[in-house]
Amino acid sequence: MAEVTDELVHRYTDAAGANDYPAATRLAQKAVTNGASVTIVLRDLVCKSQGLVGRRWAEGEWTVQQEHTASAVTSLVIEDLARLAPPLTQRSPEVLVTSAEGDWHGTGPAILDAALLHHGRRSIRMPLGAAAGQVAGVIHDLGPECVVVSCSLPALLPGARRMVVAAQDAGTPAVVGGRGFGTDDRRAERLGANGWAADVVELADLVEATAGFSMPSARFDYPGAAEYATLRQEAGVVTDRVRALLEGPDDHSGAVDAAVWLLKALAASLLLDDSDILSEDVDWFTCRAPITGLSVSRLLEALLHALPETLTVAKTRVRAEVERAQPPTGGK
Fold it and tell me: Which phi and psi (to 5°) does residue 174 adopt?
């Protein structure tokens, strides 16, 4: 089987970022012609390229416009790769593919959709921005054998949970994948999913193994989950408090948005009882600080003061991040 090299990933990414769709699609289809399966190309070229695009933007090498251009070109390339799939039969089993509720990144679902087509499964793809209630309606109307949920970022995992619940409460198993779940099945298990795919190559076998019937979702019974419910109800109030603390004539225009994102990460960490979700996003904002000019300590302090006193687990987690973000003092 042909190998997708790092050099090819960089050449493809350069073409996508330069808005050179013909070159990008030639590179992807040449890999297929040379013997790589489409699912391998999706995993080892397209997915790795998306990761490289993200790193180039995070490190300030690429602008937001270049990032968006590369993603747009890649969306077209994925469509081209999907069209290489063999014809489906009328009896091909159906799978519903959706992003997590609140996740507007469309590349992940498109990759999953294309991979399923190449494994002989008819895919129903929900539009971006679909809510859990819409997914439940489609399940009841069309009766797919399985729901596949993509989640691009850990802070959006609560939206993935809502999709999983919608599927399972309709008796349909839900399998999950995407960068938001990390590199193992720990978060997927905590979320209550029926399975987790590390990549698109594993996805087809996972769907085959789990398709059929699922028991309704189980409730979470740990303290963080209860605080998550409260924080979700109070999100508007907390956001207004954060805005009042951060907005001002001399403040960085992105401070409020960054703090609100950290609020989402905090909520996800409560729902999954996983403090690493908040820590990872704090580390990301810290790495970006030389480019953005944001003070991560100030963002965390504002968030800490905005949280209701009753949310003891949440405040403890934010307080730990405040301490971790403080620069060391003293001697050597």
Answer: -125, 125
Secondary structure E strands in 22-159: 94-99, 122-125, 146-150
For residue 50, give every residue at least 6 positions away whose Cβ sits within 8 Å of its Cβ, in sequence order, or none.
71, 74, 107
> Are the C-beta atoms of residues 133 and 163 closer than 8 Å to each other?
no
Q: What is the mean pLDDT of residues 276-289?
A: 94
Residue with tokens 């979470």: 220
Residue 260 C-alpha from the chain's centroid: 17
Q: Angle, to 10 degrees, between the axis of helix 223-233 and the axis of helix 312-325? A: 90
Contact indicator for 178, 152 with CB cutoff of 8 Å: yes
**Measured CA distances, 38 to 24, 42, 174, 184 (Å):** 15, 6, 24, 24
pTM of the full structure? 0.90
Has residue 296 got a pLDDT over 90?
yes
Residue 49 contacts residue 74 (beta carbons within 8 Å):
yes
Phi, psi at 5, each rounded to 5°: -85, 160
Percent of the chain having pLDDT more than 90?
A: 81
Tokens at 129, concatenated: 């921005």
DSSP for 234-265, written as a single string: THHHHHHHHHHHH-STTS-TTHHHHHHHHHHH
The strand pair at 195-196 and 146-150 is best described as unpaired
Given this model, what pLDDT does residue 326 score? 76
What b/e string do you get for 219-238 counting C-beta neighbours within 10 Å, with b at 16 or more?
ebeeebeebbeebeebeeeb
DSSP for residue 179: G
Phi and psi at 196, nearest 5°, equal -135, 130
Residue whose token pair is 């965390």: 300
Query: How sure is the predictor about 292, in pLDDT bands with cuts at 50, 70 and 90?
Result: confident
The C-alpha atoms of residue 74 and residue 68 are separated, in whole angstroms, by 10
**Quick one: 248 exposed, middle or buried, by C-beta within 10 A (0-12, 13-18, 19+)?**
exposed
